[in-house]
Amino acid sequence: MGILGTGIQEGLLLKPIRYKWAMDLYDQAVANTWFPNEIQLGEDIADFKKMTDEERHAVTFLMSYFNPNELLVNKALAFGVYPYLNAAEAHMYLAKQMWEEANHSMSFEYVLETFPIDREAAYAAHVDIPSMAKKEEFQVKFIRRMTEETLDITSVEGKQDFVRNLVAYNVILEGIWFYSGFMVALSFRQRNLLRNFGSLMDWVVRDESLHLKFGINLILTVLEENPELQTAEFADEIRQMILDAVEMEEEYNNDLLPGGILGLNASYINQYVKYLADRRLEELGFEAHYKVSNPAKWMATANDTLELVNFFESTNTSYETNAKAHSTAKAE
User: Is 131 part of any domain?
Assistant: First the structure.
């Protein structure tokens, strides 16, 4: 029996674990549990007020995008992924991921409540700004196929739709588009601004790095267990989805930073987007397409926040809950 299946009574026994990678990610996700109010975000208000209009626009723009899309990811997981898996360890990880997406949404609400941001304008942006709305429609198209039409997971077309949805959400939304935004959000701390906001984003990035690992592992598992999906035509379609996503992100970044801010402009972000896209292509077994260097090498530390300690901040972003139990589980 493979990882795909819709039987209610399948996947009710956790042991023996069939997919160790899913259980390992669940253990790490539980160890990473955190809550937004542990960050003293109010200490950043003075920074926010002294920033330029364009800098404040960038932060607001990011919140406008992240907030609804964290909830959209939850819908994709609940309707497009969870019902079509039959491994208990995968369901457990997805349950924790869904809680994390909700926690991220509450974190971005915390930002909107703390900083002097027009909430109504921020909420409206994901509909009113064409480049943002275009990205969202791209995502909704895939989840609509999973929810409004009957998906036969036993058919080749049904399995392809399942993989398409994973690529749209785990690889493109979480692995490219979100990371592009994370880089912009964390760039302020590089200039000694919004340090507590940076700590909040560190924790979000740490979660999202596991979401990405789960999605990539799941895609590769489905492809391995279903060799009939491994056609040149389907591979080309998946590759093109990622390339199209890069173009959409370039438009979005031109709206995010129309004039640029100190040390950062749209072309810089777009080079980072292309670098990310190449890494995701390689993780899926493709060759790199853009072959550009990473303009934000400082993001490497943010992408491995388990090792990161902010010595100049009151909050240690590297802590883990139940770390002893987790280290024991890792050693088994």
Answer: yes
Query: pTM (2 decimals)?
Result: 0.86
**Known binder of ligand: residue 38?**
no
Tell me if 283 is assigned to a ligand binding site.
no
Please check if 70 is assigned to a binding site: yes
174 is in an annotated binding site: yes
Average pLDDT, the chain: 84
Partnered with residue 261 across adjacent β-strands are: 264
Number of domains in the chain: 1
- Give me the CATH number covering residue 293: 1.10.620.20
C-beta neighbour count of 308 within 10 angstroms: 16
Task: With beta carbons less than 8 A apart as the criterion, state whether 261 and 152 touch.
Answer: no
Q: Is residue 14 part of a domain?
A: no
DSSP state letters, 314-332: SS-TT--TTHHHHHHHHH-
CA–CA gap between residue 94 and residue 25 (Å, rounded): 10
Assess if residue 267 is contained within a domain.
Answer: yes
Q: What is the pLDDT of residue 313?
A: 38
57 is in an annotated binding site: no
- Is 55 annotated in a binding site? The answer is no
CA distance 168 to 31: 27
- Could you list the residue range(s) of the whole structural domain that residue 100 is in? 20-331
Does any domain span residue 151? yes
- Write 59-62 long-range contacts (CB < 8 A, 24+): 59/111, 59/115, 59/117, 59/185, 59/188, 59/194, 59/197, 60/117, 60/118, 60/121, 60/122, 60/125, 61/125, 61/255, 61/256, 62/181, 62/184, 62/185, 62/256
- Confidence label for 302 from pLDDT (cuts 50, 70 and 90): low
Does the pLDDT value for residue 228 go beyond 60?
yes
Task: With CA atoms as reference, report the closest residue to 140 among 223, 215, 75, 59.
Answer: 75
Separation CA 187–CA 268 (nearest Å): 12
Closest by CA to 65, choosing from 253, 229, 199, is 253
Give catalytic residue positions. Answer: 110
Which pair of structure tokens corresponds to residue 43?
């200490």
**Residue in the block written with tokens 């709206």:** 255
Calculate the CA dihedral of residues 225, 227, 232, 237 and round it to 10 degrees.
-40
